Structures are given as C-alpha cells and as structure tokens.
Amino acid sequence: MRILINILKKSIRLIIGFILCASSTVFMLNSNLGLSPWDVFHQGISNVTGLTIGQANILSSVVVIIIGIVLSQRIGIGTLFNIIMVGKFVDIINESNIIPVANNFFVGIVMMIIGMFVMGYGCYLYIGCELGCGPRDGVMVGLSSKLNKPIKLIRGSIEILVLIIGFILGGKVGIGTLISAISIGYCIQIVFKLKNFDAVNVRHKSIMESTKL
C-alpha cells in the first residue's frame, strides 16, 4: 500500500511539474517579445530541412536524449512522458486562453519573468520525482555534473548556443529571446536554491527499474 501511495504522489507531482513547464512556455510565448531560444532553433531547422517546427522539436529531442545518455543520464519514464505530455499541455493551455496575451512591453517583461520562474519550479517538481529528466534538462544536469559548474551557467550557455545556431539557420529573434537565453538559467538556479534542491545528485530510476517497481 505504501508503494502504491508513493507512486501516486510521484505521478501527481510529475504531472503538475509538466503543467507548470507548459504554462511557462505559454507565458513566454504570450509575452509577445520573441520566440524562446529553443523555438528559434526549431524554426531554423524547419527552414533548412523542410520539417515542421513540431517535427524539428521531436528530432532535436531525440538528439538531445542521445547526448544525455553519453553524459550518463538515465532515461526514465519521466523523460518519455516529458516529450509527449509537455507539448500536449502547451496546446491545451494555449487554446484555453487562461494565460492572457501581453498588450505592452512592460507587461511582456513581467510575463517573461513569471514564465522563467514557473519553469524553474516545474523542473524542481518533475526532476525531484527521480523518474528521469526531460531531454534538455538531462543534458543541463549531466553537463553540470561532468564540468562541476553551476546550473545557471550551464543552462544559460546551452540556451545561448541553440539561439546562435537557430539565428544562423534563419530563426526569428526578439528581445524576449535574449532575455530568456541570458536569464532562465539564473531563475532555475534561484528556485533550486530556495527549495534546497540538488538536481545534480538526484538518482533517477531507469525505465526498467520503474517497470519492475
């Protein structure tokens, strides 16, 4: 019974984490200040390959998962659910119009800041389930561990790198894109510190371990 209750708690926490990450994406999208670095990257891939942005997202997720495996990150049920569910939640939240669209620059900046902190808390919730990081967060944690560098530096460097590549490939960049690239790592780091959460030392269960449980 205790195991079942624990599984239920982790499942709820995982889903709430995904919903918050999806909400973060919509907050930043509705800020009307520009695409996020990763969406600039996906748009750039779409321009070059002819793939849709959604297909480019899936392709980049697969590549990032492989990089995560090289960095000794375990692929868990949470990793797979992240790929499938976060995108679905983004569509649901966006279509429901729960999160308003910014009508001026100041409101847009506030929404960007809210979105980045919501992303940090969503990452804290679902990574803490120990069921596997999302593809991009797995690389962030893996590099932080391997290079012994803080999350804020690693995440910021990744965002800037994909932004540069996406821009070169023709992705559209706005002021919000630059704000996100520079600041999101710091926002996530602040949330982790406030929650006294060490993402680097979380031992994630593999898909096989979760299945056996």
Quick tags:
single chain, 213 residues, mainly alpha, membrane
Please describe the topology of this protein.
Layout: H1 2-30, H2 37-49, H3 53-70, H4 77-96, H5 105-127, H6 135-147, H7 151-168, H8 175-194, H9 207-212
Q: Which residues sit in consecutive blocks of at least 5 with pLDDT less than 50?
A: none
Number of domains: 1
Overall form: globular
Structural class by helix and strand composition: mainly alpha
Please bin the fraction of helical residues: over 70%
Counting DSSP H or I runs of 4 or more residues, the number of helices is: 9
N→C terminal distance: 13 Å
Instruction: Indicate the mean pLDDT.
Output: 86
Strand percent estimate = under 5%
Q: Order of helices and strands, N to C?
A: HHHHHHHHH
The strand count comes to 0
User: Rg, please?
Assistant: 17 Å
Keywords: Membrane, Transmembrane, Transmembrane helix
Pfam family, one: DUF6198
Transmembrane segments: 12-29, 58-84, 105-127, 160-188
Protein name: YitT family protein
